[in-house]
Amino acid sequence: MDKKSNENAGELFERLVEVVEKLRAPGGCPWDREQTHKSLRPYLIEEVYEVVDSIDNSDYFSMREELGDVLLHILFHSDIERESDRFDICDVIQTLTEKLIRRHPHVFGDVKVANSDEVLHNWENIKLRERQKKSGNASLLDGIPKSMSALLIAQRMQEKASRIGFDWDNIADVWGKVEEEIGELKELLDSGDENRIEDELGDVLFALSNLARFLKTNSEMALRRTNEKFSSRFRYIEQKLRENNIENPTLEIMDKFWDEAKQV
Question: Under a CB-based contact definition with an 8 Å cutoff, are residues 151 and 223 in contact?
Fold first, then answer.
């Protein structure tokens, strides 16, 4: 690791805030000054995925840099709001600090918990009470970003529902639900009813996402890994086709290279 400076975290953070403010101030960077919440949105999403990639690759040096890029976006969005006099980075920090203390009464209060499951149960109940103060129609499922992938939303909804006891008793029941949904989908395949087929396929994916939760894995991450695996093996096929000057390969030839790719 790099040799640490004599500056503490507060001093380093204050300097970073000043740098961002200068970038957006009159006479600063023209590109930075033009940015808005909406224009920065795709870059923020991209930076978060780059952090995820660095974690997946155990590339901790890159992770340090990518986390910095995410922090930059937090500061940028906060500075845009500072200029509008709605809030600033201090308000963001204060709100987060208060929320962490409020939602960890077992650490900052006198609530007793036996395990992490009870921690999550309390966390969801506290969040629900906070939302109910704002709206009488608040739901435990509120707060799940609609911009997340549908697969991840499915698992998050199931996780939240399970924390108040709305859940299967064991994994055998979950397997049964998966098999039931696949069976219903099979029955519709020859019907030509595209809407019902889409609905049943959605039920299958929802059930599989629930299975992932019971297996204590993340359905989104599992699919990402499979996507990467498929990409790597398919690129191997393409490489072999080029090396052998095969322009119109048969499925048999491609299957042969696919099996080779699995051994690489």
Answer: yes
More reliable by pLDDT, 118 or 81: 81
CA 20 – CA 150 distance, rounded (Å): 34
Instruction: For the beta carbon of residue 89, count every other beta carbon within 10 angstroms.
Output: 19
Let me know whether 20 and 72 are in one domain. yes
Q: Average pLDDT for residues 65-90, to the nearest whole number?
A: 96
Q: No. of H helices and E strands in the chain?
A: 12, 0
* Residue 18, domain CATH: 1.10.287.1080
Give me the number of domains the chain comprises: 4
Global pTM reads 0.67
* Residue 63 host element (H or E): helix 60-83
Q: Judge if 92 and 125 occupy the same domain.
A: no
Rounded to whole angstroms, the Cα distance separating 217 from 223 reads 11
Token pair of 166 as six digits: 């709305």
Residue range 216-252, pLDDT digits in tens? 999 988 998 899 999 999 999 999 999 999 999 999 9
Is residue 148 domain-resident? Answer: no
DSSP 256: H
Quick: pLDDT tens for 44-65.
989 998 998 999 889 999 999 9
Q: What residues make up the domain containing 45?
A: 9-102
Please give the angle made by the CA atoms of 26, 92 and 109, to the nearest 5 degrees.
160
Are 97 and 19 within one domain? yes
Please give the structure tokens belonging to residue 64: 């340090």
